[in-house]
Amino acid sequence: MSLMLKKDTTTTIMQLRRISLLILLLTGLALPAVCYADDGISISTEISKAAIPYEGKDTLTVSLTWAGEPFLYQIDDFPMPSLEKLQILGSSTSVSSAGDSTVESGTTTTRTYRYILQPTDYGTGVIEPLDITAKNRVSNESHELKTGRLTIEIAKPVPVEPQGSGGLGIIILAIALVMIFGAGAAIFVRVRRKQRESLNVVVDGHYCEALEAIKKEAVADRKLFYSRVYRLLLNFLEKERSLDVSGKTGEEIVATVQGIEDETERRHITQWLRQAQKIKYQPESPSPGDVENSYDEIHKFFENKQKAT
Questions:
Q1: How many domains does the chain divide into?
Q2: What tens digit of pLDDT does each residue of 33-81 get?
Q3: Residue 43's domain spans which residues?
Q4: Among 156, 155, 152, which Cα is nearest to 84's?
Q5: Measured between alpha carbons, how far is residue 252 from residues 170, 193, 246, 300 in Å?
Q6: Does pTM top 0.85 for this prediction?
Q7: Are 254 and 270 in contact (CB under 8 A)?
Q8: Helix-strand-coil percent breakdown of the chain, rounded to 5?
Q9: C-alpha span between 48 and 57 (Å, rounded)
Q10: Do the strands 73-74 and 131-136 form a parallel or antiparallel pair, or are they unpaired?
Q11: Would residue 17 count as lying in a domain?
Q12: E strands in 128-227
């Protein structure tokens, strides 16, 4: 009988803990530390294969594990690793829980991020350490988590030997490839010129109006919004700051921005350029709140610049 009474008491206590946590999240009231035990949060990484062919793919898995319900920790950003000789083909995230919050052992939650990687060169591919911030919604404490540096050995590309000995066929194929490449390059140049002309007509020094048009077009689509904002920022750098950003990579552009004397302007533009680059690889997810917040911040920036001139 005493064993049954102890079990019932434990179950009741765990149920009260769960109800108290939900009340805290919904109302923002402070909970005594005794109501929920924060056992901490850990991070782990794994690659499916340590060595891959140049034509192959690999999977990077990053897992965050904590004792408690899925909503216990707030993790705002989808982490994107910095890579060498590798690129991200796709990414996904999932959350799973095991255990029972009504018993003393409680629930264990795992949030998993998966990245499909593809080689861009042979040799040693590098996955730089990831920095992730997880905030405990109960204690308001932030945990700075960091992964280790990982490497993947990438084999040399397999040479493709032409079949048969038909020299004429090879010549014809080469000519066709040159013609296709030339036509593609001409189309690309025309499209880029039209994009620049279109953006110049829209902007014409009125960046706030251009930003409003971008917001109307994107609605809640973060990827579309930031891709347009990225072009708008490049236009601003070229026209207003006389910086050469044409044909440069994202990191080269960020390095060029460091030449701006105004520290606040330099910091804001660097942040927005990197945000646009990061969101380009994230999964599709409508986010009207993010678009609205980013729009307000960038609009205020351009508004102040136009007033100053």
A1: 2
A2: 223 333 589 999 999 999 999 999 999 999 999 988 988 999 877 788 8
A3: 39-154
A4: 152
A5: 39, 21, 10, 26
A6: no
A7: yes
A8: 45, 25, 30
A9: 10
A10: antiparallel
A11: no
A12: 131-136, 142-146, 150-154
